Amino acid sequence: MRAVAPIVCALAFAGCVTTKAEWDPAAYRAAVASGDAQEMGRQARAAERRQALVGLTRERVHALLGTRPSRRGTTESFPAGDNGSVVDRDAFSLLLRYDRSGRVVSVDYTG
Q1: pTM
Q2: What is the rounded distance in angstroms from the CA atom of residue 28 to the CA atom of residue 37?
Q3: What PROSITE patterns does the record point to (predicted)?
Q4: Cα angle at 89 between 81 and 24, to 5 degrees?
């Protein structure tokens, strides 16, 4: 078991082992702006894991994400990267569900 710790540390320093990202709206906005699919996905998964946007109004969500509200439905979808496949690329989404008052009730990563 002792021999495993140095190997894990070496892999972590080499970038082979990643930790779970913390939700950071600025990092999400930057990833969308630059087209960084991997970071979009990390941020979307972090938002889902923490349910980071739950309770926020539609206007506040759009202010955080740097977007404009598009419609007044009960769900909205935001880009969350893709699977990276050159042959059959699937886009992923950060899906927000709103209640009647326009507040987020759930955050899902579809991928």
Answers
A1: 0.75
A2: 10
A3: PROKAR_LIPOPROTEIN (PS51257)
A4: 5
